[in-house]
Amino acid sequence: MAARAIFLFGLAAAGQAAPSMKDFHRTCQGEKTTPEQLHFNYAGDRGMTISWNTKAKLEFPAVRYGRDRWLDQIAFSEVSVTYPTSTTYSNHVFIDGLEPDTEYSFSVLCADENDHHRFKTSIAPGNPRPYTFAFIGDLGTMGPLGLADYGQEDALSPGEITTMQSLGQFKNQFEFVWHDGDLAYADDWLKEERNGFLPNTTTEGGAAVYEAILNAFYNEMAQNITMDRPYMVGPGNHEANCDNGGSGPYTDSICMEGQTNFTGFRNHFRMPSAQSGGLENFWFSWDSGLVHYIQFNTETDFPDAPDLPGGSGEENAGPFAPNGTQIEWLKRDLASVDRKKTPWIIVAGHRPWYVDDSKCDSCQTAFEPLLLEYGVDIALFGHKHFYERMTPIANNTPDSKGLNNPSAPWYIVNGAAGHYEGLSSVDTPYENYTVKAIDTVYGWSRFTVHNCTHITQDFIASANGTVLDSATLYKNHDGCKF
Ligand SMILES: [Fe+2]
Fold this sequence. Notes:
By secondary structure, this protein is α+β, with helices and mostly antiparallel strands. The chain has 2 domains: 21-120, Immunoglobulin-like (Sandwich); 131-474, Purple Acid Phosphatase, chain A, domain 2. It contains 8 helices and 25 strands. A 7-stranded mixed β-sheet has the order 14-15-16-17-21-18-22. Strands 13-11-9-23-24-25 form a 6-stranded mixed β-sheet, with no helix packed on it. The protein has a 4-stranded antiparallel β-sheet with strand order 1-2-6-5. Helix 2 (163-170) runs parallel beside helix 4 (206-226) and helix 7 (325-335) packs parallel to helix 8. The two termini are 42 Å apart. Fe (ii) ion is lined by residues 182, 236-238, 350, 383. Keywords: Glycoprotein, Hydrolase, Signal. InterPro entries: Calcineurin-like_PHP, FN3_dom, Metallo-depent_PP-like, MPP_PAP, PAPs_C, PAPs_N, Purple_acid_Pase-like_N.
């Protein structure tokens, strides 16, 4: 059967001949090239990026794929990257020319012969088919390196279903998972060590623990959900460096090269910034069905961003582009949305500015004017370790229409997915824009895009799958026919 090579990530430009299957398999070296940490993400209307890690570098990361089990096509790249302190290489292969809303089987290089997986491409923009997606914030590794059922505040009950497991149980309901920053919590190793939770760890040995947490998290995520559903991610402060903003007498000066400046996060993912004019995994957009999705970056790359050197977050990271680049991109991206095709715009950033706890004022100054100018429908955030649903709000004033065709964006904070630090308390009394707050259970959000007028958000308790809060937004979008 004919194999079609797809040249990307510089291989075509280099003018090299397509490697043969023999060339590919020659690079397999047993355990060193066994795939782990498998995940994939949307990459444009007809693309998918497949990513996995190996202990050794792959000369030509490759993916065989097809509409049936014969996997008659192949895509490859030269992207097998690592960084100081990492114990693995991140391999990324972009596949283009796929049919929208279509399932494909695939297998990555050096996997067992029968280790086939399936992905489904995004729904074509404008297709009114209803669908559901999952939204999470602030999810760390589970078990002895992170959130366990012992030795910490808000520990899991023995046998409690975690958010990862809950997503796995519900995966047949949704198309993709959107993780709005704070992944793995590898930088909590210092806190865990100082608290005696990691009794055999020293500060000097922390760099290895940091990498062990990242590997554990991405493997758990793969086993539960990311080898089955697209995994879209954005940056949070816990991706910035090794020390979680300093802990006790320590500052980020203890971080080794490779564990600063979002390095692991930049290596591990290839979000669709190339397809949307964005930047790496920091800001980008994609479409699916009736929705245009935007991930923006509340950590660096705007005035007084908290993670910049000297910023309030003490993370000493970035910037990653010249002054003004992110905001200019966001404006351009919002202006280019064809609301006839994608009447809904849903955005996500990590740090909220409407929330019953410390607010990110510089984020509000940078982003809210554009959200209002371009009629963003829903704005999602994490960072605070609880669930809080606001009423639509603009410039600190609740929209009098509530969820009944408001002109202001609807704000939801959900950073309750779970990690070593547990949950936080919502400050009381609540702000006048807070409708519902839950700060005692781990959970995730399920969004259902019904049509061009209605979207429902449910907060799901991970432990038992119950819906603890549910609300539906009605918007009378111009020209809406579905
Ligand atoms: Fe955070």
